[in-house]
Amino acid sequence: MLVLKPASEKDFSTIEKLAKVIWNEHYIPIIGETQVNYMLDKMYSREAMQKQCQEGQRFYLIKNNERETGFISISTPDTKNLMLHKFYILQEKQNTGLGTQVFKKIIEELYQPQTIRLTVNRQNYKSINFYFKLGFKIEKVADFDIGNNYFMNDFVMLWQNKRQIQFK
Q1: Least packed by Cβ within 10 Å: which of 12, 39, 55, 87?
Q2: Does 94 map to a domain?
Q3: Which helix (H) or strand (E) holds 45?
């Protein structure tokens, strides 16, 4: 059974552990170990997650059959236009349909949004193709200076609720 459990501060250590596993498996070949370590420290320390929550992000643990298998974070100024800041699932659970199920829960149970935006590394072909499958389109190319001479070289992708999306 799939559950998106709203995360509280007591769940931050679980999110941090999941992020380390997921990022080290997935992002080192894309951006290198040094930048991965920098970004993990910058975004997944307890203090960083507290700050993100204060800025309006809501974290959710993805629980599949009672096991934490990933997490998401979302912000929204008006409940109809979402920013999907984080969408991470353990590599062992990818290509199982779990990501599609999570997305379906977001749009059918949590928010019923009109639009969803996200950013994704331009070299992250696996995730880009997943988002295309969900109906996202590339809205623009953007480079974000994240400090320490590192940049996130991303696509900004947009999903618009067309009410005719079919999920497998």
Answers
A1: 55
A2: yes
A3: none
CA distances from 20 to 16, 40, 87, 93 (A): 6, 7, 14, 16
CATH label of the domain that carries residue 149: 3.40.630.30
54: buried, middle or exposed (CB in 10 Å: 19+, 13-18, 0-12)?
exposed
Q: Are 23 and 3 in contact (CB under 8 A)?
A: no
Express each pLDDT in 26-85 by its tens digit: 999 999 999 999 999 999 999 999 999 999 999 999 999 999 999 999 999 888 999 999
Structural domain of residue 71, as residue ranges? 2-160
Query: N- to C-terminal Cα distance for the chain?
Result: 17
* Host H or E run for residue 46: helix 46-54
The Cα 59–Cα 56 span in angstroms is: 10
Integer Cα distance of 116 and 85 in angstroms = 10
- Alpha-carbon gap, residue 98 to 87, rounded angstroms: 12
